[in-house]
Q: What sequence folds into this?
């Protein structure tokens, strides 16, 4: 698979929707994840990321303008022991609760489908990172309608053992802008990841569409110690 430039991928797509990146820093020492949200409606754009425990949650920037919280207010990132869960919806909680009961990532998602927001039927994208005794692996998932048919749910899981330094994978909800919005297709895209968290954060935020970007979360976790650094950028600051 050809390695893509994440800057070019974002700059060339006005509306990838919500996106998850997971990989390993160029120097090999950090497990890396990033999550961003975008919005076309006032309700979707009226959000910020805030820290909650070791994870984050979304909240309304202006509570008086909040219309329907059901698909926009959730915890995108939660930490369960040595696992970091990253998703684009409340399936974060489903995965957390399932894995806490010794279910696998894939088993935990069996009870969930794409979002009930026809005609888009937004895919549910999820990732889990596992760090233990200096080792690191991760998996990503997408639950999507069958080419826009809500009567069928297609489930895909991608597992990455012994991630390579400087490589990551990028999955997002929509191929591009449209009405209805076309769901992501194929396996997660191979992208490069730098060793510097601030440079990577700047690259992502700068190249997200100025009108549609809302919030960005980036975390670099030391694989040997578990210590981490986090960056949060909110357009509504």
A:
């Amino acid at each position: 698979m050809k390695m893509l430039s994440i800057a070019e991928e974002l700059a060339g797509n006005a509306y990838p929707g919500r996106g998850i990146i997971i990989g390993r820093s160029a120097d090999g020492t950090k497990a890396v994840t990033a999550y961003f949200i975008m919005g076309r409606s006032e309700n979707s754009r009226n959000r910020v990321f805030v820290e909650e425990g070791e994870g984050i949650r979304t909240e309304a920037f202006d509570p008086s303008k909040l219309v329907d919280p059901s698909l926009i207010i959730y915890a995108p990132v939660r930490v369960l022991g040595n696992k970091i869960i990253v998703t684009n919806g409340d399936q974060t909680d489903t995965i957390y609760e399932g894995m806490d009961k010794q279910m696998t990532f894939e088993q935990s998602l069996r009870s969930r489908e794409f979002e009930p927001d026809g005609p888009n039927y937004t895919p549910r994208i999820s990732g889990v990172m596992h760090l233990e005794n200096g080792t690191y692996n991760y998996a990503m998932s997408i639950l999507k309608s069958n080419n826009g048919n809500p009567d069928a749910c297609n489930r895909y899981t991608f597992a990455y053992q012994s991630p390579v330094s400087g490589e990551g994978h990028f999955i997002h909800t929509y191929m591009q802008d449209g009405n209805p919005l076309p769901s992501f297709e194929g396996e997660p895209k191979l992208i490069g990841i730098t060793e510097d968290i601030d440079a990577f954060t700047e690259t992502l935020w700068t190249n997200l569409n100025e009108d549609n970007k809302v919030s960005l979360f980036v975390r670099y976790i030391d694989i040997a110690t578990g210590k981490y650094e986090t960056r949060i950028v909110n357009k509504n600051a």
Q: What stands out?
A: The longest strand covers residues 149-161.
